[in-house]
Design a protein that fits this description.
Phosphatase 2c, domain 1, five-stranded antiparallel sheet, 26% strand
Length: 248
């Protein structure tokens, strides 16, 4: 398995509200990143509950999902279980009321990639020299980008990027975005919080990602680049490389 993850609280924030995890479950590489929403109570607790719940659910139940077309329903169930855990924790600890988090999951099986996503934690694919954004941001700036009223670069500094309209921690049934991709062996899959991608260009992102056999070095370079770019947020990235199932 060629995968790695790294997180840093960044040069400004006193607490790291990001959480992440990754690992092999059967012959699938699973990666999870959650970003506790800044300005809300106990974002770091919400993100940790989300990540821990997801990994527990994946380890327990993913081996029983035999068909690719069954994954969307499975991931919706996983998201809603994590959401319920957060809401119950709020009821047990009133001082945590209002805590919420983004959540993005990537599952890589050979060249089959499935992503489940709520919030503005992003998935990227590095295919040859091309860096491809795989997810849509669930914030006001993202809405404007989708409508063609704002460019991706403009969205990075738009005030609407901090206004999320879809998160875990809401008292409602969640419908995460589900994406299914067929990628190529050797491609790199990234999950990263906005404290990383908002503070570098795509060219800088690609320049940090040249050592495809060393995801740990890529993570370190990306975080260093975000800090050099004066990131004002927590910074988290996980990386997995598509490999033949026999080598996983």
């Amino acid at each position: 398995m060629l995968a790695y993850g790294m997180s840093d609280k960044g040069p400004v924030r006193p607490v790291n509200e990001d959480s992440f995890d990754y690992g092999m479950i059967g012959n699938c590489l699973c990666m999870v990143v959650a970003d506790g929403v800044g300005g809300e109570a106990c974002g770091e607790i919400a993100s940790r509950i989300a990540v821990d719940t997801v990994m527990s659910e994946l380890k327990e139940n993913l081996p029983f999902v035999k068909e690719r077309e069954d994954l969307p329903a499975f991931f919706k169930t996983v998201f809603n279980k994590a959401n319920v855990k957060i809401l119950r924790d709020c009821l047990e600890h009133r001082e945590r009321m209002g805590m919420c988090t983004t959540l993005t999951i990537a599952m890589l099986k050979g060249t089959e990639l499935t992503i489940a996503h709520i919030g503005d934690t992003r998935g990227y694919l590095l295919h040859g020299p091309e860096l491809i954004k795989l997810t849509e941001d669930h914030n006001e700036a993202g809405k404007l980008v989708k409508k063609g009223l704002l460019s991706e670069d403009e969205a990075k500094c738009h005030p609407g990027r901090s206004r999320l309209f879809k998160v875990l921690g809401e008292n409602q049934y969640l419908n995460p975005d589900i994406y299914s991709y067929n990628i190529s062996y050797g491609d790199l899959v990234f999950l990263c919080s906005d404290g990383l991608y908002s503070f570098m260009s795509n060219e800088q992102f690609k320049a940090c990602s040249q050592e495809r056999n060393h995801p740990e070095r890529i993570c370190a370079k990306l975080i260093a680049q975000a800090i050099e770019g004066e990131s004002t947020d927590n910074i988290t990235v996980t990386i997995g490389r598509a490999e033949p199932a026999a080598e996983l």
